[in-house]
What we know:
InterPro entries: FAD/NAD-bd_sf. By secondary structure, this protein is mainly α. The chain contains three helices and two strands.
Amino acid sequence: MWRLSFRNNMGLGIVRGVVAKFQYITKPLLPVLWVPLIYAILGSIGLILNFWTTGDMLNDEQHNKTPEGVEKFDFIVVGAETAGALVANRLSKTHHVLLLETGEGA
């Protein structure tokens, strides 16, 4: 049976040396780098929430702008032939429906 052993592997020792060297270099820099990053993230949360609520308010204002005297329809059915009339009839039992037809017989 073959057994993998990482203890005697020379390549792993090189990796450990590189990681140790990297930690030696970066450990003093971590507080210097992370503290401003955390402050920037926490400071931007308020800005993000402000944009979010402002966007919601603008969306609500645009959504609520409906001209007075204009009817609102849940469905608009175009074509009042057999299928259109049948669909409009069934939808009108529970919804507000506009049925449009054009042509010579209209």
